[in-house]
Pentatricopeptide repeat-containing protein (Kingdonia uniflora), 460 residues
Amino acid sequence: MCRNEEISPDNYTLAALSKVSSEIGDVRIGETVHCWIIKTGFVSDTVLMNSVMAMYLKCGSFRGLREVFDKMPQRNSASWNVLISGFSVFNSCMIYEDVWMLVKQMQKERVRLDAYTISTLLPMCDGKWNYGREIHCFIVKNESALDYLDVHVGSCLIDMYSKRKKVTLGRRVFDRMECRNIVAWTAIIMSYIQNGDCEEALALFQRMQFKVEPNRVSLISVLPACSSLNSLMGGKQIHGFAIRNEFNHQVSLNNALIDMYCKCGDLSYAKHVFDNDAYCKDEISWSSIIAGYGLHGKGNEAVSLFNGMLQMGIKPNNITLVGVISGCGRSGLVKEGLNIYNSAVTVYGISPTVEACACVVDMLGRAGQLDRALEFINSMPVKPSPSVWGALFGASVLHENLEMQEIACKFLIQLEPENSSNYISLSNVYASSGRWDVVAELRKRMKSRGLRKLPGCSWV
């Protein structure tokens, strides 16, 4: 064989090169491979062109992906699946009608939607409830061609119904699934937790253990249910299971355990998990333990942990800021709280959220510095929300300052004109100062808006 003879790569070689370029994320190499494919005449190889589309998808070039798709002489279901995946990845402000037109065009070309197509489309239906129901109907109608009880498709349906607060419909899908793996069990458990039925979530978790072995994700998913029900014993059992199965070196699970122990009132166990050297703590770990101490009014410990976090070179975020300032407010550490807030803004470049500002107002208000709290509200970098004015109102009630109560209530009524409690609070302020004419006017305004005072309920 002549040394100068040029050997052209075949389609298998080009497919391998396309996959390598997608793995390393180098679109320039991928474009070179694409040129070779055109030069060698393999553009009619559908499988090869699908790999090129997948390469453009992984390299972040939706334009390249779409150009390949539009010029393909023949397309199969995998080709359409890659294009639809591209829409889900690159179009955060996606036009749902465009995706739906793609699905209709796919069906016109007699390309069958498979389980991958369905599972890609379902997460896109968050903002379009009707589309999700249409897809479910399509699955049921085509049950003979498409496995309705497919685990992944079923899990996606459960997740879609959960986001629309249709837990009962999600449970129907779950109950009809003949094969339920850990993904399906976790999906239905999370569905109940996200919709406030934590007792049923824990009951399902107990049933799951007789069917499949829980993994790290399922443990993380069920821990918020223990927090909501204040089930410290249940949380400890999950913790014990994690230790026996050597999950205790997973940072995400330990973060969830810290949060659970803090919310269940056991700071000693939370600190025990935090001090475990078997995992590398991240900013969530520090924020969780700081927020836990702040929640229980241990401001000095929260500040100490915050300083330790800074010494470790970990940059704080707004969640950390809310946790430590909340602790300072409950402990009367106004100076320390303001120093932390100012350093977070000036030194670490944090743009404070409304929640962080509300914590500062609450901290100043608890200390009786109501004028200073009002000055802070007027100089806030974000627009005051009802939580901010609510914090000022609560502090004004605590310190019996009718003038501040009136100011806070007026702003609350502006922000929440349909909230009857704001009118009642302002009415009580005027009643305390004997201004019954204004009280009558407020009652009249409530009646004209159709607002009524919610009846009180006391449990003994």
